[in-house]
Specification:
The complex is a heterodimer. By secondary structure, chain A is of the alpha+beta class. Chain A has 14 helices and nine strands. In chain A, the strands form two sheets. In chain A, strands 6-7-5-8-9 form a five-stranded mixed β-sheet, sandwiched between helices. Chain A has a four-stranded antiparallel β-sheet with strand order 1-4-3-2. Classes of the chains: A alpha+beta, B alpha+beta.
């Protein structure tokens, strides 16, 4: 959904003509805000990457002038908001977890304008491609065109914007629309399950983009944005969740569910060293000498809420095998993952370890 | 339709020292249904994603049909994927959901309509085309997810744990449906699961993976009856195979497997293999599937020197069978026995090991020492 969408829709309906919004390949880009004719078809260059084509329409000069004038004079606040987001987003990309956390308390510099798709409260969804930068026009085209289509299919008509050099995509979803995007909203009936619903939408986006747009992406979701002046903090929280998501090696992250991960990422090196040292004290066995599969065991048992049968199902080992592995882990480390306190310590250790691996 | 050849495929993530997929070699024939199975982190999903083009291939050649596709964009590989969190768009009708991928590829409307109706007919969901996903049951949603892949008419279907979100009953139903679908479509399918029952029941061939390495790739029957190593033996089969650590002892001209509280005379048919592999006097691991421990008189009399004394710890009544958790010597084992016998925890029972079906593994390498089909012990007819 761009600033041009609504005026364009009104014009095409009034004139009963067809319009196609498409990616503008670098080889055939015209000046922004100008008409051009290619293969006997008229098109308007909207911005660097986008143009609108009017197949089979042969307008007079006056008609073209009128359409162009209306289109570009209705950009208004929507474009201003998007430009501001883009500017801020680029500035946030180089910041580390600590800087991002501090940045969230900064007063809101983004001036949110009026837009029919911005109703508060709401959430920002940040879609980032995994892997290398896209370096061909064709691939760039595929991403720039298909991802917004999939976003619309998942989130419904709404606001989105392609940001930065990596062509990340950011989209806004009003809280009132979240349930429409969740297939099994009834499963998350409790109000406190909003992060679970957002996680579900984020997972759907990842699958849909892989299935329909053939791209491997990570999706992070911002904190709840209650009003326009919290927009900047929301943007920062989405970037922060994306940063933590990379550290934790997961494909989806909702800011509200990243708190432990954020805490471990913020721990000073001295604190982390002391934690590792203390961890080996119970049995005098350094963490490096722990069983190879300790991370897997701990993650499995924690994700099963310490239910061993369920954990065995998740890890796909026999229950007795898992019990044997847990007993062995306890024997070596002194920590029993079936015990809540020990499980918390082991979970935190697993988080730290995963982040260390990611940083190395 | 297409063959898929994976030649020396490796995958190492940037910054990592160890590859997650190591020298993966597999030729998947046209129209074949191959299942990648293994525990989490074994590299099966990564391999599937490399075939899909969602992950870069670090080394080796991936060939689909006659084309090397390592550097071919995913959309040009002529594949379709179905994931565990299958993508169904809540805002769209079933028809629109199935048509969406084709619409993105700018397929003409008439062609889209034809393909959607054809796929709906195959999946028996024509009556659901106007409904929204929220109004569908789990099984119907799963069918729509498959329909979204079918309309693309791909050369290869890739499925990543597509049934994991379903309840147990529906999973059983859907795995039969997918199998039938494969027979109807006659298309190459690669299916990833960590569920060995799914693998055994669905695959023409199953490829058991661990730590990024193929442990064994063969028909379900061969993988079950002739596991190449302890991992495959323990992973395939439920309840899992029993393992007992012991030694092969020569006594005169006979060979025995001995462990605390257990002495089993090994069948002569296996002597040559055991002698040539140099394990006499060395530690080995004996593998016995639960269904190969018998309490019937007939087995006792057929294998008198393979009868062991067991103490019943737990009795699990499964209806058509009973799982006996027993202690034999210092080993815990599970026996799958006939429910017409009654057992009580704490009671003593005698169990005969079916010598035709035993597996012997090198304790050091964990590799199988000859397959069980080489054994020539007296057969039991019941």
């Amino acid at each position: 959904m761009g600033w041009w969408t609504e005026p364009l829709r009104r014009w095409t309906e009034a004139l009963a003509i067809e319009s196609v919004v498409e990616y503008a390949p670098a080889t055939s880009r015209s000046a922004i805000g100008q008409w051009a004719n290619e293969n006997l078809e008229w098109y308007i260059q909207i911005d660097e990457a986008t143009r609108v084509r009017f197949p089979g329409w042969h307008p007079t000069d006056a008609m073209r002038d009128a359409l162009l004038w209306t289109l570009f004079n209705s950009r208004g606040a929507q474009a201003g908001l998007a430009d501001a987001l883009e500017l801020d987003y680029r500035a946030l990309l180089d910041k580390d977890v600590g800087e991002l956390v501090r940045e969230m308390s900064v007063a809101a510099p983004i001036q949110a304008g009026s837009c029919e798709f911005w109703s508060y409260p709401g959430y920002l969804f940040l879609v980032r491609r995994k892997g290398a930068l896209v370096d061909t026009d064709e691939a760039e085209n595929a991403f720039a065109q298909m991802i917004p289509d999939v976003l619309r299919a998942v989130l419904g008509e709404g606001w989105h914007r392609v940001l930065g050099e990596r062509q990340d995509v950011i989209a806004y979803l009003p809280a009132s629309k979240v349930d429409e995007a969740v297939l099994d909203a009834a499963d998350f009936a409790d109000a406190e399950c909003m992060t679970k619903r957002l996680e579900s939408v984020a997972k759907l986006l990842v699958s849909a983009i892989a299935e329909d747009a053939y791209h491997d992406v990570m999706v992070s979701v911002s904190r709840r944005i209650e009003q326009p002046r919290q927009l900047y903090a929301g943007l920062v929280s989405a970037v922060l969740a994306a940063r933590l998501q990379r550290l934790d090696n997961v494909r989806t992250a909702v800011y509200g569910d990243t708190l432990l991960s954020m805490f471990s990422a913020l721990a000073t090196q001295d604190a982390v060293d002391a934690f590792w040292q203390g961890l080996g004290e119970r049995c005098q066995v350094p963490v490096d000498a722990w069983p190879e599969d300790w991370l897997e065991i701990v993650r499995g048992v924690i994700s099963a809420n310490l239910n061993i049968s369920e954990a065995a199902r998740i890890l796909y080992v026999h229950r007795n095998t898992l019990i044997h592995k847990i007993d062995r882990l306890e024997q070596i480390t002194g920590y029993d993952v079936r015990n809540v306190t020990d499980a918390m310590i082991l979970y935190f250790a697993a988080l730290l370890k995963t982040q260390q691996i990611a940083l190395n | 339709m297409a063959r898929v050849h994976l030649h020396h495929i490796t995958k190492t993530y940037s910054g990592a020292t160890e590859p997650v997929v190591k020298d993966f070699n597999l030729d998947i024939e046209d129209k074949e249904f191959v299942v990648f199975v293994g525990p989490s982190g074994c590299g099966k999903t990564t391999t599937l994603r490399m075939i899909a083009g969602l992950e870069d291939i670090t080394g080796g050649d991936l060939i689909i049909g006659d084309r090397r596709v390592n550097d071919v964009a995913p959309k040009d590989r002529d594949i379709a994927m179905v994931f565990q969190n299958y993508a169904l768009y809540p805002h769209m009708s079933v028809y629109q959901n199935m048509a969406f991928g084709l619409k993105l590829r700018k397929v003409p409307k008439a062609e889209i309509d034809k393909r959607v109706h054809e796929a709906a007919r195959i999946l028996d969901i024509e009556h659901l085309l106007d409904r929204k996903p929220k109004a569908l049951s789990g099984g119907q949603r799963q069918r729509v997810a498959l329909g979204r892949a079918i309309v693309r008419e791909p050369q290869v279907f890739l499925m990543d744990e597509p049934l994991s979100n379903l309840d147990a009953k529906l999973r059983v139903q859907m795995r039969a449906e997918i199998r039938k679908l494969h027979q109807r479509l006659q298309t190459t399918m690669i299916y990833v699961t960590h569920d060995q029952t799914e693998a055994m029941t669905m695959g023409d061939r199953i490829c058991v993976m661990k730590d990024g390495i193929i442990q064994q790739a063969d028909t379900p029957q061969v993988v079950y009856s002739q596991p190449k190593n302890i991992f495959v033996a323990g992973f395939i089969g439920s309840p899992a195979m029993n393992f007992i650590k012991g030694d092969i002892i020569a006594d005169g001209d006979k060979l025995y497997f001995r462990a605390p509280g257990i002495s089993i005379l090994l069948p002569e048919g296996r002597y040559n293999v055991l002698k040539s592999s140099g394990v006499i006097g060395k530690p080995v691991i004996l593998g016995v599937r639960p269904e190969d421990l018998h309490n019937e008189e007939l087995f006792m009399s057929t294998y008198p020197e393979a009868v062991v004394d067991a103490k019943v710890e737990v009795v699990e009544h499964m209806g058509s069978e009973v799982y006996l958790h027993v202690n034999i010597g210092s080993s815990s084992m599970v026996a799958r026995v006939n429910p017409r016998f009654s057992f009580h925890p704490g009671s003593e029972v005698k169990l005969a090991v079916d010598l035709n079906k035993i597996h012997i593994f090198d304790a050091e390498t964990e590799e199988s020492i000859g397959f069980s089909h080489a054994v020539e012990a007296p057969a039991v007819t019941m």
